[in-house]
Design a protein that fits this description.
Elements lengths: L11 H6 L13 E7 L5 E7 L1 H10 L3 E4 L4 E4 L8 E8 L5 E8 L15 E2 L11 E2 L8 H4 L6
Parallel strand pairs: 1-6
Antiparallel strand pairs: 1-2, 3-4, 5-6, 7-8
């Protein structure tokens, strides 16, 4: 599931030290994408991009992702209006992950109504069944109004 928009890296050294964008898509044709708030640095969400989502993100400056559950390309905010304008994009050392710093438009990035998808903490130093702890878990918007007819 490659895209002719991107170069195939000729060597590990080229991928890690070269200047050409040569994303290393997994066997499903995806790279992991981490979106952080450009001002606070908070992690807003983790999603996936296929070649088309990556290309559209680069071309438009708006975050596009690939939904594994729907098997479809989507632009962040196309149904909620909570878009993400990309301020900076980076790839990791072997180009199999993308980090985008975004200006989050609207009240939140999470379909549950929260600003971030990372609103629960895992307690460390414990064994057995884990009880998650809410951190910054207040709802920023009513997901029922933003996504009518959809379960969160």
């Amino acid at each position: 599931m490659s895209d002719s928009s991107f170069t195939k890296s000729s060597s590990k050294k080229d991928a890690e030290e070269g200047l050409l964008l040569a994303p290393k898509f997994d066997s499903s044709g995806l790279v992991t994408a981490v979106a952080t708030d450009s001002k606070s640095g908070d992690v807003l969400m983790v999603a996936h991009m296929n070649a088309e989502a990556l290309r559209r993100t680069i071309e438009t400056g708006e975050a596009h992702y690939f939904s594994r559950s729907r098997n479809a390309l989507w632009r962040k905010g196309e149904s909620s209006g909570h878009t993400q304008r990309v301020v900076e994009m980076r790839v990791d050392c072997d180009q199999d992950a993308v980090w985008i710093k975004v200006e989050q438009q609207g009240e939140g990035a999470c379909h549950t109504g929260r600003r971030s998808c990372f609103y629960r903490a895992v307690p460390l130093g414990k064994a057995g069944a884990m009880t998650l702890e809410f951190r910054d878990g207040e709802k920023a918007f009513d997901p029922g109004k933003v996504y009518p007819g959809k379960l969160t």
